[in-house]
Request: fold
Amino acid sequence: MPFPAAYFDDMYRVDDDPWGYRHRWYERRKQQLTLAVLPRERYRHGYEPACANGELAALLATRCDVLLASDLSGKAVRAARERCAALPNVGIEQRVLPHEWPDAQFDLIVIGELAYYLDADETAALAGRACASLAADGTLLACHWRHGFADGLQSAVAAHAAFDRCTSLVKLVHHEERDLLLDVWSKDARSVAEHEGLA
Reply:
């Protein structure tokens, strides 16, 4: 990964919530939007790479029987473990992605604010590993900031295009705003209503 753990550790040295996940309305709204677009109410085994300080992980845990979350930064991992300490279904690990993708199958993968820190080859590897570990009834969600920033190696659109190239996936949701891009893919093309026999 182009950015070493120390890059993010330095951010957490100053503030355990460097992006304002707890207090910024933009971030809290994005978390609620993420939960709202998930096509299933419950998931067996979820994974959130790049979990930062665990704010979204704590919310995803309410929808998952088991949730694994990980981050490159040791300081982020410690903050996430503190945030999720009261949630017995959540495990937090330190992992360098895409190279240390967990050897497991997931029916929910949520990739947020990660891919533009990777170059195109690493994003392709990330997408490949996510697709390969997604269960037949699984959901893959990606959400990224659309504005350019100094450390971003690619745009949100370019990053999401890597997931579009996974031929086993069907896009269920495409949500685009000036600030963010959010997409949901699945190996199961049925809509929420079709799952419930309403359509």
